[in-house]
Amino acid sequence: MLPAPLQRHPVLGVFAARSIVLGDALCSVMAIGIGFGFGAGVVARLALRPVAALLDLVAIAAPAAIVTFMQPDLRHVGLGLLILMYVAASFEMVRLSFNASINQITLKRQFEQLSRLDPMTGASNRSVLATDLPQMLAAGMIAVHTLDLDRFKEANDRFGHPVGDALLKQVAGRLKALAAQDDLVVRMGGDEFVLVQRAAADAEAMAQRIVQSISAPYDIDGQMIELGVSVGVAVAPDDGRTAEALLSRSDKALYRAKQERGGYVLARDLRMADATASGQTLAEELAA
Predict the structure, then answer these.
(1) Lower CB count within 10 Å: N or C terminus of the chain?
(2) Whole-structure pTM value
(3) How far out from the chain centre does Cα 211 lie?
(4) How far apart are CA 93 and CA 109, in angstroms?
(5) What is the DSSP secondary structure assignment for residue 201, as one 8-state letter?
(6) In a structure prediction context, what are the per-residue pLDDT tens digits for the chain, which is 288 residues long?
(7) With helix as H, strand as E and coil as C, how does 259-287 read?
């Protein structure tokens, strides 16, 4: 069964054609005016459905145009040409409206993507972490790796901000190379990054790869620079069942890693140590 608009528009076309055959000027003007009005509505309403718009326009105009060209006088031929010109102009309006709508949608998506990116490194910005981390957490087991670069401030002060910016870009590039397609790399600000790993079963192995990769020398315009990195790792659901809990415990593990002068620390190890020191069992600590 045809949709309601496609059922209605042929009726309008037949009505206009019948009015022209009757030869009543008032009826003809009324019928053609109604047809033109519905045609304008089709252009406005169906800009994102150009095929449907074109079919509707043809259904409205074709019967009236055919009848006018069948009449033997020039007035009807002129009216038929006017109808065809209107249909052609309507086709062009549909095309322009469709292209404009698509361009607007494309620009909106581009702006949304740009608003999610850190302009310097091309990594996601911290606003993405606020929106995407809860969704990733709801999907299952994840690991949050919170990173802080060691000796970055010294390198930035010694070689200048352009070199510091280049270092941050290379760090982000190395993290993206380590991350899987579904993982999330976020620059939190300054020299702090977060990598959210979906395949959390090998969270410790990922932390080892991060330390090894980020600690490798950087070549900045022929100048070899070495940085260190401290990593705190929290794994859901054992280390937390909410985004806030995971970030908090990965931050605590990061702080311990910085106290130990680099490397990685697992939030799990901190929990076990705290539970032992306080006399709690591991089950009680997890429940807490």
Answers:
(1) N
(2) 0.63
(3) 30
(4) 24
(5) G
(6) 444 444 445 666 666 666 666 665 666 666 666 666 666 666 666 666 777 777 777 777 777 777 777 777 777 777 777 777 877 877 777 788 788 878 887 777 766 666 678 889 989 998 888 889 999 998 888 999 999 999 999 999 999 999 999 999 999 999 999 999 999 999 998 999 999 999 888 899 999 999 999 999 999 988 899 999 999 999 999 999 999 999 999 999 999 999 998 899 999 888 777 656 665 554 454 444
(7) HCCCEEEEHHHHHHHHHHHHCCCHHHHHH
